[in-house]
Design brief:
Elements (H helix, E strand, L loop, with lengths): L3 H24 L10 H24 L4 H24 L3
Helix pairs in contact: 1-2, 1-3, 2-3
Length: 92
């Protein structure tokens, strides 16, 4: 967890989760519209960056230290699913 490639994907996921929760707390649950808003596009960009950063971490560290890499990878995957769960459960 000392290397940026390990904690950066987790930090990105938690930042997106915080943004989503703050938005929902202040403005309420967004209504589904025909045109996706800026938030949806930012979420899609985040997903691409998240997948690339997790792939980079896995490719770089899995051959060097498999056991610790798999533990950090599990944390990264759990962190990724937190914002995705909000989107799924609210049908956004």
């Amino acid at each position: 967890m000392r290397h940026p490639s390990a904690w950066l994907p987790i930090a990105m996921s938690l930042a997106v989760l915080a943004i989503m929760l703050i938005y929902i707390a202040t403005l309420g649950v967004p209504v589904r519209e025909a045109d996706e808003g800026t938030g949806a596009h930012l979420f899609q960009i985040w997903m691409v960056l998240e997948i690339l950063s997790v792939a980079f971490f896995t490719i770089k560290w899995l051959p060097r230290n498999p056991k610790q890499t798999l533990m950090v990878l599990a944390l990264q995957i759990v962190a990724i699913f937190l914002p995705m769960a909000i989107v799924f459960f609210l049908n956004l």
